[in-house]
Fold this protein.
Amino acid sequence: MITSDDKNYVMNTYGRYPLTLVKGNGTKAWDDKGNIYLDFVAGIAVNAFGHCYPAIVEAIKKQAETLIHCSNLYWNENQIELAKMIAENSFGDKVFFANSGAEANEGAIKLARKYASLKYGDKRYKVISAKNSFHGRTFGALTATGQEKYHKGFGPLLEGFKYVPYNDADALYSAIDDEVCAIMLEVIQGEGGIYEGNIEYLKTAREICDKNDILLIIDEVQTGIGRTGKLFAYEHYDITPDIMTVAKALGGGVPIGAIVAKEGVSVFKPGDHASTFGGNPLACAAGLAVMKEITKEGFLDDVLYKGEYFKDGLKGLKEKYSIIKDVRGKGLMIGCEINLDDAGDIVMNAMNKGLLINCVNHNVLRFVPPLIVTKEEIDTALIILDDVLQEMSL
């Protein structure tokens, strides 16, 4: 009934797996038949503390009984407190709240153009982004995304964007002209296949921006809020952005996104940008609960340790099975590239054995488990993957 109603009433925008989840607790999820799964998708890097984490649930319940929404016509204590906590734990000074990563990226593009317009007039408006990037599916974010497969059928796209190969500093230099206002990059390309930016490349991007008064926008929608073992992934690379976008894990499952910017870059004035739902009391209550948990002493060190432990286990499988081409990533954002055109069968076979994973770019298995995952649960995932790969190699 559920699947037939879905086909009848829900737009056909998702290639869903044959699974209906009805309950979650910690790193586990249950389907409508009572089967239990170890969830290493975590809502696509959203459920940083797993399902129904007590501190987040309590914050949401308490706020839902008090004030869910009031609009941004009025002050909102939760919004102010969350903005302060993000600013004090990052490079940033000012925060704008949206509802998603795509919205945050749209706002970041607007902010960069407004900054350039105030200083140079309308001649500086172009944004350079990387090929194989992903920044969202609304029109500005879609145009910034450097993958043609997402553009197909939606042209003409917006003007003022150009793409350069990732990790190619020379290409960045060549793309700079008097019309560029910003460079927009992921420090780890998530949907593109878990490709890391090298430190020299990212430092070069920062230097180019400094020399040309161009803004560096770092998209941390997937990497931010502890996913890589640092609160924000830019911290691994000894660079500081001018603007950063975050979303996914910030609300622990409640929709929220944010633009974080330096004081001198934060040039929006009333009327320039807004969001009806952005930064509402409920979403910010969830965000505060997440930030309070994730900034506890030793938590992120533990994420780094477990990430290395998991990568070592996957590298062990790589030595055992030639089907594994590469293992890469930071913290608990790990990609495992497979020597196949499509890794979908591995995802399905793992699901049938009780492990939820997914693949990006067709042949890269993506592992983004809850940050509270244990070593024992990582071992269980590795055993299941070993079984799947062994069966496929027979």
User: Anything to note?
Assistant: Residues 37 and 354 are 4 Å apart (CA to CA).
